[in-house]
Write a structure and sequence with these properties.
By secondary structure, the chain is α+β, with helices and mostly antiparallel strands. Among the domains are: 68 residues, 2-Layer Sandwich (Double Stranded RNA Binding Domain), CATH 3.30.160.60; 56 residues, Classic Zinc Finger (Double Stranded RNA Binding Domain, 2-Layer Sandwich); 59 residues, Double Stranded RNA Binding Domain. The chain is 40% helix and 12% strand. The strands form 10 sheets. The protein has a two-stranded antiparallel ribbon. A hairpin with an 8-residue loop joins strand 9 and strand 10. It is globular. GO terms for molecular function: DNA-binding transcription factor activity, RNA polymerase II-specific; RNA polymerase II cis-regulatory region sequence-specific DNA binding; zinc ion binding. One of its GO terms (biological process) is regulation of transcription by RNA polymerase II. Keywords: Metal-binding, Nucleus, Repeat, Zinc, Zinc-finger.
Length: 340
């Protein structure tokens, strides 16, 4: 290897990257995760106990973290420093840490270096974390993170998902827009909101098959659209006997609710027990079209998603018999019934 270290302890720790040895095991019931150092074990155990000893010192920020690396990463959001820029033409994204840039680059290259070796599964993933979550399908520990709030029985495959879910109980909105100050419960929602302040014309163009030519506002929309050409549906339902596949994790999540019967979004309006209907009472239309010069708004995110297809021209639903494409699944289903 040839690497040199200042202390024998650092050498010993480095050697474990070659041997794969992880001698420090978590003693919490049902966990059993192992680590290369006692320090990493200690930080990990904080995820069970809820301990977060690393506090942000930035004025007005009360965020706390279980890991010092997470605090260090968070501090860069205050500095606005994104030194790692994507070099792919037309992308322009930049990141706080090099690791995030490396993971992002795989959306351009298609690289999936982490492969499941269980029972010849061979599914591959862009990150080790995604592989780890997938492995729970094989091990049976599919949703190990349970919500601790009374009368809530929800559980999750990832600790980060549990953390986001807890915000629905506490009402906390720790992420604020640096432009207008609006607060959000999730960083992704805040980031999407901030992009709308400086929304630019669509510039991600589909070149599938030598020239589809459709353009999209984000690389994520382009990636999703490309699957209408390839037929790729990488997200599979893990419920026994189902096996349905979907083009996005969001569609899979909604589908899984048909198995569990889960309807977590309850209307709080007096005397109403419906789900997802609160906007009918308030008249609120919180989902606004982000496209330039369009002022349409909607009561449901699904309605906005359908409306956006009128801008993009995307027709993601294809007839399995003749191949004709449609912008809405209902239109495709009605068309297919005419074949029979």
């Amino acid at each position: 290897c040839g690497k040199t270290f200042a202390t024998s302890a650092h050498l010993k720790y480095h050697t474990r990257t070659h041997t794969g040895e992880k001698p420090f095991m978590c003693s919490f019931e049902g966990c059993g995760r192992t680590f290369t150092s006692s320090g990493h074990l200690k930080y990990h155990q904080g995820t069970h106990s809820g301990e977060k000893p690393f506090k942000c010192q930035h004025p007005g920020c009360n965020r706390v973290f279980a890991w010092p690396a997470h605090l260090k990463y968070h501090m860069k959001t205050h500095l606005g420093d994104r030194p790692y820029k994507c070099s792919y033409e037309g992308c322009g994204k930049s990141f706080y840490v090099l690791q995030r840039l490396n993971v992002h680059a795989r959306t351009h290259t298609g690289e999936r270096p982490y492969t499941c070796q269980v029972d010849d599964c061979m599914k591959s993933f862009t990150t080790a974390g995604n592989l780890k979550n997938h492995m729970r399908i094989h091990t049976g520990r599919e949703r190990p993170y349970r919500c601790p709030f009374v009368n809530c029985r929800r559980s999750f495959t990832e600790h980060s998902s549990l953390r986001k879910h807890k915000l629905t109980h506490t009402g906390e909105k720790p992420y604020s827009c640096s432009i207008c100050g609006k607060t959000f419960s999730q960083s992704g929602s805040r980031n999407a909101h901030q992009r709308r302040h400086s929304f630019s014309p669509r510039h991600y163009e589909c070149d599938y098959g030598g020239g589809c030519g459709k353009t999209f506002a984000t690389s994520a929309h382009l990636k999703y659209h490309t699957r209408t050409h390839t037929g790729e549906k990488p997200f599979m339902c893990s419920f026994e006997g189902c096996g349905r596949t979907f083009t996005s994790s969001g569609h899979l999540k909604y589908h899984q609710g048909t198995h569990s019967g889960e309807k977590p979004f309850k209307c709080q309006h007096s005397g109403c027990n419906r789900v997802c209907y609160i906007c009918i009472h308030t008249g609120e239309r919180p989902y606004r079209c982000p496209f330039v010069n369009c002022r349409r708004s909607f009561t449901e995110h699904s309605s906005l998603r359908k409306h956006e297809l009128t801008h993009t021209g995307e027709k993601p639903y294809s007839c399995s018999i003749c191949g004709k494409t449609f912008s809405q699944s209902g239109s495709r289903n009605a068309h297919q019934r005419r074949h029979s």
